[in-house]
Amino acid sequence: MAPLVQVEQLEKRFGEVCALNRVSFEVEAGEWIAIMGPSGSGKTTLINILGGLDHPSGGRVVVDGRDISHLGERELTRYRSEKIGFVFQQFHLVPYLTAVENVMLAQYFHSITDEKDAAEALRHVGLGDRLSHVPAQLSGGEQQRVAIARALINHPKLILADEPTGNLDEANEVVILDLFRQLHLAGHTILVVTHSQVIGNLADRRVELEHGHLARISAPPAVLKD
Amino acid sequence: MFLRILWKLLGASRGRLLLALVALASGAAICSALLNVNLDAEKKLTQEFRTFGANVVIAPKAGDNAALADAGIMDRIAGLHIPQLVAAAPYLYIAANSGTQPVILAGTWFDQVAKMDSWWKVQGKWVSAKENRAECLVGQTAARQLGLSIGSSVELRSGGRNISLSVAGIVTTGGSEDNQILTWLDVAQGLAGFSGKVSLVQLSVSGRSSEIEGVTRQLAAALPGLDVRPVRQIAAAQGTILGRIRGLIFWTIALILILSMFGVLASMAALAMERSKDVGLMKALGGSVGKIMRLFLAEAGALGLLGGTIGFLVGVVLARWIGWRVFNVAISPHLEVLPITVALTVVVALAGALPLRFLGRVRPAEILRGE
């Protein structure tokens, strides 16, 4: 079976700066990949291209059998709504919408809204009693759980998370990581950009970048993963 | 969900949207007031114009100077039941003498003249009661020449007949009446021996130029052998004034709406900056530019609807105030102004929302990175 994600000789330049230089790797469906590396190594650029938020300068990216490298804005919009679930470090919830409405917003842009489904998704992440709260009334951990429910609501092929625990305290980090672990067990394909060794150890594989180059792909020791 | 997000959007930036709403409602109020005034102004002005003299004259055919018309035409005019007819005053002009001085005596119906020429300046009093046949109005020039004053009597002679009239008032019109003595029609007819005859009939007809032309044609058809003609200068002046007022109202509305649009533009430009992060996120979540823009344009449209409706109501009050101040009458509200005001305001709101269209160019990756 073909891998879910194929990254081949991927390049991204911002003027003279080469953010990604001939990066290649593959991701199988159901895998949990940690993309690691120091700041400025190209992690976020890579995830933006995988998520259809940016275009590569060279190489190609195939997701679910479709080359997204040269898609136009309209096709990328459709790709994002149908294939991708985003989780951001700063949560990025719409401040004037309630928790359930933030989840419904993703449904609205995908197809049709279903408040019951949206509420159920929030119950799954433990926010059944926070449906009508706006982001300002939620803690950081709760906001990130809303973002995870929003990312999952349209059953995406790929969940892309950019430092999902970067803005959380330790207790909330545990909750969020537990959620990611459950998603992984349920068969979701997850790519997480992280500095955290804890997340790196939980993943199936680590894709490590340095100065835009692929430094190594490694699997964490089994003893740490458990 | 569309309406739900729209509702939340409207509540989210209340301050800025309130400013835009005030700009829209203010523009709409003036627009509504002027449109209401415009619809009534023509009617009110036409009524005003009808107090400034005759605008249609019926006389024997041109070239027949000696001919007089039969006074029975007054009954025939009345029998036509013309709704636009404000007043109809017959006139018989005869040459008479006061002592050795010649003077024109005009016989007429004062009750009709009072309706048609209410702007005449009369010192003393109008000749009001038909029963009082011995009274007359004297033009100011004639009064000076004949040495007449209010309360004095004037002896008039014509064709061997004499009458004595008491001067009820001295009239100033700025026209030929200043040189005449005016009395009741039948008194003049009796002095001249022209019983049942008139020189001409002056009519005051309300309405637009086209309506006046219509009444003229109707009268001409009903009164063969007589010359029925509108007083062109008055009709033309009336049309010019109405046209200029209409032009003034149109351009004022256009300017006010443009100013309102600038007010909305300023608010919406600030709003576009505020909303760029939300739009970046919506795009990242798979929102198409069309779907996102529909939300923001619907928001602007809703503001236009609300602003237009509020503006219409305020405009109705404003129009009444303008009506009292300018025309001394109440301008009645015209419901047909509501859809025009609302439609114009919605167009202005959408045009003012132009900055929101730049949100379509927001690049989500840059916004989400915080650039």
Q: If you had to describe this structure to a student in words, what would you say it looks like?
A:
The complex is a heterodimer of chains A (226) and B (371). Chain A is built from eight helices and ten strands. Chain A is α/β, with parallel strands linked by helices and 226 residues long. Chain A is globular. With 371 residues, chain B is of the alpha+beta class. Chain B folds into two domains: 2-47 and 242-369, no CATH class; 56-230, no CATH class. Chain B is 56% helix and 20% strand. Chain B is built from twelve helices and twelve strands. Chain B has helices spanning 2-12, 14-49, 73-79, 110-116, 140-146, 185-192, 209-222, 232-284, 289-327, 337-352, 354-357, 364-369; strands at 56-60, 69-70, 85-98, 101-108, 121-124, 135-139, 153-158, 161-172, 180-184, 197-198, 200-205, 226-230. The A-B interface holds A 44, 48, 51, 53-54, 73-74, 77-78, 80-82, 84, 86, 88, 90, 92, 94-97, 101, 104-110, 113, 150, 154 and B 1-2, 4-5, 8-9, 11-12, 277-278, 281-289, 291, 363-365, 368-370.
Q: Indicate the mean pLDDT of chain A.
A: 90
Number of domains of chain B: 2
What is the terminal separation of chain B in angstroms?
A: 30 Å
Oligomer: heterodimer
Assign a percent range to the helix content of chain A: 25-40%
